[in-house]
TrEMBL record:
The keyword ATP-binding is assigned to this record: yes
Domain Histidine kinase as annotated: residue spans: 44-269
EC number: 2.7.13.3
Entry GO MF terms: ATP binding; phosphorelay sensor kinase activity
Keyword Phosphoprotein: yes
Name by which UniProt lists this protein: histidine kinase
Residues of the Response regulatory domain: 341-457
Record's catalysed reaction(s): ATP + protein L-histidine = ADP + protein N-phospho-L-histidine
SMART domains associated with the record: HATPase_c, HisKA, REC
Keywords: ATP-binding, Kinase, Nucleotide-binding, Phosphoprotein, Transferase, Two-component regulatory system
Location of 4-aspartylphosphate modifications: D390
Length: 482
């Protein structure tokens, strides 16, 4: 009887184990199906977005060509085109991801003079390096040795790799140098490969972030970059594209010293699928050159905003009168029929330009992050009547700027409006809790924004006037901000 019970229990355990294995298989299948549906959804949405973008860009280019004699209209249209291109670049990246996931990305590998092609691509960043004051080197010591070993690349995919890594290097390097190298080396001392190396002396990547740096949508929150904008797609896409070539990518980095990416590409074509290897170079070259400008334009236009950021954008007022410590001479403020002064703080160059034109009834000053805003305030003879600031910015974000301004007796009374893409109630409460006078969500109504700017300035003048009279009556007062 005891033996029978043991056998029964054992059978029960085996049945339960079998059931759990089956449940696990079903769960894995369900997750795989959900992932496939998600990818299919992204593909559909991306394709649907490309159609209206195409219908926007084609007529837009025609209109721009007819508006040469109207500089202001031309400026607005160029802002629209640049940001439409930026959206197109993001959509293309999402499409490439989804196509890789579903094995629908059809690469076209051809024998390529990798030394010449890499030099051609990297050279597009020379003018940017000169303007930004960064030493930029393209180091291909022995281009002839690459002729001895055939290298097969999908040139469009390789171009995306080079432009992504180079634009990242410029984004995170304020001074020092950036080097693009190409050489042959042995990976793990076994296999001879072509190595594309992009190194910089920029802000570096924290050691804790390195294991995740190639994960999709993973972003390293750094305050030292030229721009806070980004999706976390770039490096993940680079890794996927290198993997398609049968290669690998490695990274080494030290905070405040720099970063080095090494991309390893196998020689020959034995590792590639036969149906993806092409030999009609002339036909491909024609098609490639037709598409080449678009790909380069998408990356270079997005990076070009950093060039203007590198220059001083402060507009100096003609009013040379110094402020007193509290900036509360309200009687003089109300008597003078002057333009109100507004400081715009945003790391997006197009957004700053747009605000400068939109707020033409005000004297507009511009800064590209919180630190630059503080420097700008120090150079001005008279403080601005209002500050309009983005929240997510490099070096010093909007919240940190708020804290600095509210802690300084000279600037604590300046009304501050925060701008953000975060529309949740929690985000708005956080902004007001930090000391903002108003909070605007992007996209916004321009008429409402101008009205609120006027209202906040007028309320600020009224507050200063009350404080001014109280100061004259009592001799002192104290203002507290949390």
């Amino acid at each position: 009887m005891e033996f029978f019970n043991l056998v029964t229990n054992q059978i029960y355990v085996l049945l339960q184990h079998g059931k759990s294995v089956e449940d696990e298989k079903n769960q894995i299948k369900t997750l795989a199906d959900l992932n496939y549906e998600k990818i299919t959804f992204f593909q559909g949405i991306s394709h649907e977005l490309k159609t209206p973008l195409t219908l926007m860009l084609s007529p837009l280019n025609d209109v721009i060509n007819t508006c040469i004699q109207e500089p202001l209209l031309m400026s607005h249209l160029q802002i629209i085109r640049r940001n439409a291109h930026r959206l197109l670049k993001l959509i293309n990246s999402l499409l490439q991801f989804s196509n890789i996931e579903t094995n629908q990305l059809k690469a076209h590998y051809r024998e390529t003079n990798i030394a010449k092609f890499t030099h051609e691509l990297a050279s597009d960043f020379k003018s940017m390096a000169k303007t930004l004051g960064v030493n930029y080197y393209i180091d291909i010591p022995n281009p002839d040795e690459f002729d001895l070993d055939k290298i097969y690349l999908d040139r469009d995919l390789y171009e995306t790799i080079v432009f992504n890594l180079c634009s990242n290097a410029f984004k995170h390097t304020w001074n020092g140098q950036i080097t693009v190298r190409l050489y042959l080396d042995y990976m793990n001392e076994k296999k001879k490969m072509a190595v594309l190396e992009v190194s910089d002396t920029g802000i570096g990547i924290p050691e804790s972030a390195l294991p995740n740096i190639f994960q999709r949508f993973y972003r390293v929150e750094s305050q030292g970059s030229r721009s806070h904008e980004g999706t976390g797609i770039g490096l993940a896409l680079v890794k996927e594209l290198i993997t398609l070539h049968g290669g690998d990518i490695t990274v080494t980095s030290v905070v405040n010293q720099g970063t080095t990416f090494k991309c390893w590409f196998p020689l020959g074509c034995e590792h590639l699928l036969i149906d993806q290897i092409f030999s009609n170079k002339m036909e491909y070259q024609i098609n490639h050159d037709r598409e080449l400008y678009t790909i380069r334009q998408l990356y270079l236009e997005e990076s070009s905003q950093w060039i203007k950021d590198n220059k001083s954008e402060t507009q100096y007022s003609n009013n040379n009168k110094e402020l007193d410590n509290m900036n509360i001479d309200a009687d003089e403020t109300t008597k003078n029929n002057r333009k109100y002064k507004v400081l715009i703080v945003d790391d997006n160059n197009d957004m700053r330009d747009y605000f400068a034109e939109l707020l033409n009834e005000f004297d507009v000053y511009r800064a590209y992050d919180g630190q630059n805003a503080i420097q700008t305030l120090k150079t001005l003879k008279k403080l601005p009547d209002l500050i309009l600031s983005d929240i997510m910015m490099p070096n010093m974000d909007g919240y940190e700027l708020l804290n600095v301004l509210r802690s300084d007796v000279k600037t604590q009374l300046i009304p501050i409006i925060l701008l953000s893409a975060k529309a949740s109630e929690t985000s708005k409460i956080q902004g007001f809790d930090k000391g903002a006078d108003d909070y605007f969500v992007k996209p916004f109504s321009t008429r409402e924004l101008i009205f609120r700017i006027r209202a906040n300035i007028e309320c600020s003048i009224l507050r200063r006037k009350i404080l001014f009279h109280r100061y004259n009556k009592h001799g002192s007062f104290r203002i507290r901000f949390r």
